[in-house]
Design a protein that fits this description.
Strand content: 5-15%
Radius of gyration: 19 Å
Order of helices and strands: HEHHEHEHEHHEEHH
Strand order of the largest sheet: 3-4-2-1-5-6
Number of strands: 6
Low-confidence stretches: none
Helix content: 40-55%
Mean pLDDT: 94
Distance between the termini: 32 Å
Largest sheet: 6 strands, parallel
Number of helices: 9
Structural class: alpha/beta
C-alpha cells in the first residue's frame, strides 16, 4: 500500500502551509550556485501543487519570498525575480487545466514592475477556477502583515468606522492578508530547520507543525503524503482535554 492510499480523505487538512527551505544548501551540495537550487525548487512546487490538487486540498500557501529576502545578494534577488516571471508565465495554462486559482499575499508593490504585471495577469486568468486555491506568499512577512493590520485598524478607529470595544479576534483576522482564507491546519517546513521564520504567526496559532530534513528541491508528493499522515495521527484538542475531544 502506498503512502497516498493510507491517507484518510475524510480527515484532510483544509489548508496546508509550506516553508520551502533548502534550495541554497541543495545547490551547494552539488557544487552549484544558489540560483541552480531555486530553479530546481520550481519542479518541487509543480509536483506538490499537483499532489495537493489531486488529494482535494482546498488551500495551499507557499512561502516563496520574504521581506527579509530582499537583503540577499543582488544577483540572487534579480535571478529569483526573473525566475518568478518566467515560471508564472509558463504555469498559468497548467493552473487553468487543473482548475487551480492563484492568489498572492505580501508587499507586492515591492516587486519589479514586470513581476507584478505577470502576477496580476495570472490572478485574473485563474480567477474563475474553483479547485485548489494556491496562495503564494511573496515579499511577505508576518510582522509586516500585523503592522499593516494595526495601522489600518487605527485608521478606522480614528475615522469612527470601528469602535475599540468591538475589536476582537474576528476583527483582527479581517485586516490580515489572509482574511479570505481559513487558517492553516498543517504547516510543513523542509530542510531540517525548526523555526517559523516570520511566517503566518497569527494564523498558525493552532496549526500542527511538521519538520523534515528533506531539502526543498527533493521534496515530492510522497513527502507531502507522509506529512499529512503524521497530521492525521495527531489529536487536535484546541485547549480541550482528550476526553472532551473524544466525547
Amino acid at each position: 500500500m502506498s503512502q497516498k492510499d493510507k491517507i484518510n480523505i475524510q480527515q484532510l487538512p483544509k489548508h496546508i502551509a509550506i516553508i520551502m527551505d533548502g534550495n541554497g544548501r541543495w545547490a551547494k551540495e552539488k557544487g552549484e550556485d544558489r540560483l541552480f537550487g531555486h530553479l530546481n525548487g520550481v519542479e518541487s512546487v509543480r509536483n506538490i501543487v499537483e499532489g495537493a490538487a489531486e488529494l482535494g486540498i482546498e488551500y495551499l500557501t507557499l512561502y516563496a519570498f520574504s521581506t527579509e529576502n530582499w537583503d540577499r545578494p543582488e544577483y540572487e534577488v534579480t535571478g529569483l525575480m526573473e525566475l518568478l516571471v518566467d515560471t508564472i508565465r509558463k504555469e498559468v495554462p497548467t493552473l487553468n487545466k487543473n482548475n487551480i486559482r492563484l492568489h498572492v499575499i505580501g508587499a507586492v508593490d515591492m516587486l519589479p514592475v514586470l513581476a507584478k504585471k505577470e502576477l496580476d495577469e495570472a490572478i485574473a486568468e485563474t480567477g474563475t477556477n474553483t479547485g485548489l486555491n494556491l496562495i503564494m506568499a511573496l515579499s511577505y512577512s508576518s510582522r509586516w502583515e500585523i503592522n499593516i493590520a494595526i495601522k489600518n485598524i487605527a485608521i478606522d478607529v480614528k475615522q469612527n468606522n470601528l469602535q475599540p470595544e468591538n475589536i476582537n479576534q474576528e476583527t483582527i483576522q479581517k485586516y490580515l492578508c489572509t482574511s479570505q482564507f481559513p487558517d492553516p491546519e498543517l504547516m510543513i517546513r523542509t530542510s531540517g530547520e525548526y523555526r517559523i521564520s516570520n511566517f503566518l504567526l497569527y494564523q498558525l496559532a493552532y496549526a500542527e507543525l511538521y519538520f523534515t530534513n528533506t531539502l526543498w528541491p527533493d521534496f515530492r508528493k510522497e513527502n507531502l503524503y507522509e506529512a499529512i499522515l503524521d497530521y492525521q495521527n495527531r489529536e487536535r484538542r484546541f485547549g480541550k482535554t482528550s476526553e472532551q475531544v473524544k466525547s
